[in-house]
Amino acid sequence: MTERRKAGTRRDLARAACRLFAERGADATTAEEIARQAGVGLRTFYRYFRTKEDAVEPMLADGAHRWLALIPGGPEEGLPGPEALREVAVTALTPKDAEATEAMRLTGGLLRAADDDPALRTVWARINLDAEHRLVAVLAERAGPEADPLTVRMLAAGAAGAIRVAVEQWAARPDGPTTGPGSPSDLVARSMLRLTGAVAPESTSTE
């Protein structure tokens, strides 16, 4: 119960930070305001986060890492092809309900706020790099010990980069659709098609 409560408080703070930053920017938002909106005290805020910008990380990370669990195949079943990764990315970036749609809108607003905030851009860059590293580990496990490390890393970089670019491109439009043409799922399908095709797995040789 305690761990679930802590996780819930962390999520509440992250959502509050994302909402306030999207509405007014990080410079005009204080850690105290984030804590107040989340229904906790300032001391509690600093138990979870070192800075106000760090508070957005859990929410952004959830979105960045959600699709990793959707990658098909099991250990040593071979690298998934670009088409499989594209389908996974499209699924992960298609909101399933009103809550997911709201989270997507908050992410878009937050990324627009990050355009003028180096600290927020640093958080976003850190999350994406971590997601890429996690993807390398997932793909390596799927491919087995004989897989070419360069191919694994390039496939991971292409897929992770396609997702990041698609989300950033969508976020640049405040009125961007969450489904259909111009949505994150549409843009990521196009991005994956362009980027991952160049690093499609051709061989498992390590030579």
Short synopsis of the structure:
Residues 7-67 form the HTH tetR-type domain. This protein starts with a helix and ends in a 12-residue tail after the last helix. It has one domain (53-199): Tetracycline Repressor, domain 2, CATH 1.10.357.10.
Could you walk me through the main structural features you see in this protein, from its secondary elements to its overall organization?
The protein has helices at 2-24, 31-38, 42-48, 57-66, 82-92, 98-114, 118-143, 149-171, 184-195. With 207 residues, it is mainly alpha-helical. The chain has one domain (53-199): Orthogonal Bundle (Tetracycline Repressor, domain 2). Helix 1 (2-24) packs across helix 2, helix 4 (57-66) packs parallel to helix 7 (118-143) and helix 6 (98-114) packs across helix 8 (149-171).
Number of domains: 1
Low-confidence stretches: 203-207
Q: What top-tier CATH class fits best?
A: Mainly Alpha
Number of helices: 9
Shape: globular
CATH topology: Tetracycline Repressor, domain 2
Structural class: mainly alpha
Listing every helix as H and every strand as E from the N terminus to the C terminus, the arrangement reads: HHHHHHHHH
Roughly what is the average pLDDT, rounded to an integer?
88
CATH superfamily, by name, is Tetracycline Repressor, domain 2
Q: What CATH architecture would you give?
A: Orthogonal Bundle
Number of strands: 0
Beta fraction of the residues? under 5%
State Rg: 18 Å
- Name the assembly state: single chain
Keywords: DNA-binding, Transcription, Transcription regulation
GO molecular function: DNA-binding transcription factor activity; transcription cis-regulatory region binding
InterPro entries: Homeodomain-like_sf, HTH-type_TetR-like_transc_reg, HTH_TetR, MftR_C
Organism: Streptomyces nodosus
